[in-house]
Amino acid sequence: MTTSTRNTASPYADALGRLPVRRGEMELLGGTTRYWDYGDPEAGVTVVVVHGFRGDHHGLEPVVAQLPQLRMVSPDLPGFGESTPLVGAAHDIEGYSEWLRAFVAGLDVRGTLVLLGHSFGSIVVSGALAARGAGDPPHPASVILVNPIGQPALKGPRGVLTRLAIFYYWLAAVLPERLGFALLRNRVIVRVMSEAMAKTREPGLRAWIHDQHHRYFSAFSDRRVVLEAFRASVSHDVSEYAARIPEPTLLVAAVDDDITPIAAERRLCEVFPDARLVEIAGVGHLIHYEKPVEAAAAIRSFLTTEETV
Question: Which helix (H) or strand (E) holds 289?
Fold first, then answer.
């Protein structure tokens, strides 16, 4: 199997190119968080976007590009992309939850706040909100979870692949540092993962998805960070926290998701005090790459219904 790609032009480049973007950074929990601030800085609604495991802010840009009327702030998770690791806190749900609360506080949002999490980011957002004490911030007007992890990973339709992933990360942990780091960044393994997750049969889009994974899926600071985050990703799911999130919540789920089946997403929707579910057909765990227009439409409709925009 070759890991090269033929046509890697982004199908969403034009929309993203029209969107103003500003870079920023904050010192949080001993590390530097770098973030990208899209859209109108004076917009009445600010959406804080939390990306998935081993990704960075690039992953959700196709969705961001479809929502120019909003201000969307997308940080790289600590230890991933251009953000440095946390100091004195583990890269687990508790650590990332504390970081997210600090990041939102540091933004000092004027107007309406919305929190959005994709995949692993859905667990981080849910964990951060569920851990609040009575009256504690953040106080988002609403919550959006895209491809939410709605049940334990080992229960998914591809539980055997999750077990293989656990073995892969275990092996990366026990090998000497240099070899383990190289295994985690191995291009062939990244390509196998990308092939397994992509559902589209359109050659250009599929090539671009593989290129995105090769560019950004190995952009982590060190072995410790990615191993801690992986353990968190397979040890927790949104269903643990859903009942403690009173804010109106939108779940944008894929009918063909191999990580959380749609039946589990339907059950998850019932756990939230106030949630609605939008199901997108013909896509798996890569809604943000394969169906960003449909995801953005669901988000826009939800925020309009909630009178957020």
Answer: helix 287-290
**Any idea what DSSP says for residue 108?**
T
> To which residue do tokens 């959006």 refer?
144
Residue of 234, 207, 279 lying closest to 54 (CA atoms) = 234
pTM greater than the 0.85 cutoff: yes
Distance CA 197, CA 64 (A): 21
End-to-end CA distance of the chain: 47
User: DSSP characters for 149-188?
Assistant: --S-GGGSTTHHHHHHHHHHHHHHHHS-HHHHHHHHT-HH
191, two tokens: 């390509």
Per-residue pLDDT of 108-164, as tens digits, reads 999 999 999 999 999 999 999 999 987 788 999 999 999 999 998 777 666 677 788
* Residue 79 burial (10 A CB sphere; 0-12, 13-18, 19+): buried
CA-derived radius of gyration, the chain: 18
CB neighbours of residue 135 within 10 Å: 6
- Give the side-chain half-sphere CA count within 13 A for 50: 30
